[in-house]
Amino acid sequence: MNIFQKPKVQTLAEWLEIATKKLESAAKERIRTEIEVHYAEAVESHLADGLAESAARAAALSDLGDARIAARRFRRQHLTEGDVKMLQNLEKQVRSFGWIVLNCLYFLILLDRDLGESGRRYHCPGLFLVLEAIVLLAFPIECFLAAKHSYTKTKRVLLFIYPFSGFFPGFFMGMFFERQPVTDHWLDLSLLGIDIALLCFCLPASLAQTRQSWRERKRELSDEYFASLRISER
Amino acid sequence: MYCSCVNNKGALATLILQNLSCGSNHGYRIAQDIKKHSKGVLDFREGTLYPALHGLEVKGLIASQTAEENGRTRCYYKLTEKGRKALAAQKKEWFQFSNAVGLMLQEA
Question: What residue spans define the domains of chain A?
Answer without folding.
Answer: 12-78, 82-226
